[in-house]
Amino acid sequence: MQEEIRFHYGRILLVLDPYLMIPRNPSTGKCNFYYFSQAIQMMYKHNLTPYLDLSYSMHHRALEKGYSDIDDYMEVLEQFLHFCIDVYGYRNMRDWIFDIGLSYDPITLKFKSEAAFTDRFIRTFRKIRQLVPTATVGGPAWLSYLPPQQCAHILDTIMSQDILPDFISASLFPYELVQQIKTGTTSMIPATRQPSL
User: Fold this and answer.
1) Residue 135 vs residues 50, 52, 97, 111, 168: alpha-carbon distances, Å
2) CA distance 72 to 68
3) Is the pTM of this model over 0.85?
């Protein structure tokens, strides 16, 4: 497919999700980047540049292994960035895209407060700029069913802290799917299959 379409970027969703992508040892707090490394290897094999969605799921399965607070999240982010620098180097990472997206519950479609997201965005942006100054950083991967005025308010707050994102991103979903999720007739989380006896 890559030979026909010539994609430039490959998006890795929920990069900082402790349930899906970066599990941690509960006794040491050290992260395991095996799944992430496999995704990057696949991208490089197909000549794709990583587009990293720096969000995590707020679904209960993720929260059981999730972040206790913003400092806990920042500790994982720093481990993640140092791992990437050590393994892939600044030269490769300067081409990567870091999208600081909303973290939301895929069942209820709700995210944490504006203040919590804005704080995470600002701290994440500054940490990436500190460690990889030439990286492309933006967000907030705004969800199409949320009020656009709320996104504008978040961006105003971020920019009032002398932060100018390199890009603004949005996640778009079909209207029918959003309505089905809101009414509980479907979910963005696939159902767990039970083994047949």
Assistant:
1) 11, 11, 7, 26, 15
2) 6
3) no
